[in-house]
Amino acid sequence: MDRAESNVRQQSTAPQEATPRVPDVSDTTQAHAFGSDRSPVFVLLLEGTQGSPLPDTLPQVGIGAAPMDGAAIRSSLAALKSALRRASEFQDLRRSYDCLLSSYFSFRRRVVELEHDVDYATRLSSPFVQFGQQKFSFEANKLRHSQQECAELRNTLQERLDNAGELADLRDHLAYRERVHADAVASFEQPIDDLNRRLAVALAAATANALGTPSTDPQLQARLVAAIANEAARDLDGA
């Protein structure tokens, strides 16, 4: 950017040589040449008359340096800087666009290659996929049956646990009934023993009487034994 500014300064300050020309008017004229938008440069032409012979040596006319407009120069430099910056940004964007475009086509080619690879792998793996699906279906059915059996076993176990509680209650009730029965049996054993002793005594007495009196009537003896037995039964029932 500084180099461009120096070139602009050199072009504005360098002396220029005027091209000699033959005057075609009789009086002095002025030609306006503009070095910039706001600074006209006045050039004084040679005086002469129409039809006069050309001199051997033509005089040289120098062009005076026009006054410099700093604001215009700064504005021009700012515009130039902006244009150069935009050009640089455009070049950067162009390079970025080219890189992105190249990357896009590269990725597109890669995607196409991968799609071909996937299609090829799909065709090759189709039998294995079918086998895997069949195996999976078989194992899934086994798993479903196993889950059903497990649920049934869980229900059975729960029923057994419930029955175990009932069985424990029944065992407690049975133990209680056994204790009650034992108490009842114990309460009946003593009267039975007493009756058995009384029966034995009565039988012994009846036997002794029968042996002491040989002419005893058998029917009377039978009635005596029956009476003793009935009395023992009544005593047992009362107990």
Walk me through this protein's architecture.
InterPro entries: Integrator_complex_assoc. Residues 7-16 have a biased composition (Polar residues). Residues 1-32 are annotated as: Disordered. The chain is mainly α and 239 residues long. It has a domain at 187-238. The chain is built from 3 helices and 2 strands. The protein has helices at residues 2-13, 70-212, 218-238; strands at 30-34, 40-44. A two-stranded antiparallel ribbon has the order 1-2. A hairpin with a 5-residue loop joins strand 1 and strand 2. Helix 2 packs antiparallel against helix 3 (218-238). The longest helix is centred in the middle third of the chain and has 143 residues, at 70-212. The radius of gyration is 73 Å and the shape is rod-shaped.
Bulk shape: rod-shaped
Distance between the termini: 140 Å
Largest sheet: 2 strands, antiparallel
User: pLDDT below 50 for ≥5 consecutive residues: which ranges?
Assistant: 1-50
Cα-atom radius of gyration: 73 Å
For the biggest β-sheet, the strand order reads 1-2
Mean pLDDT: 73
User: Proportion of β residues?
Assistant: under 5%
Structural class designation = mainly alpha
Q: In sequence order, what are the helices and strands, one letter per element?
A: HEEHH
Helix content: over 70%
What is the count of β-strands? 2
User: How many separate helices?
Assistant: 3
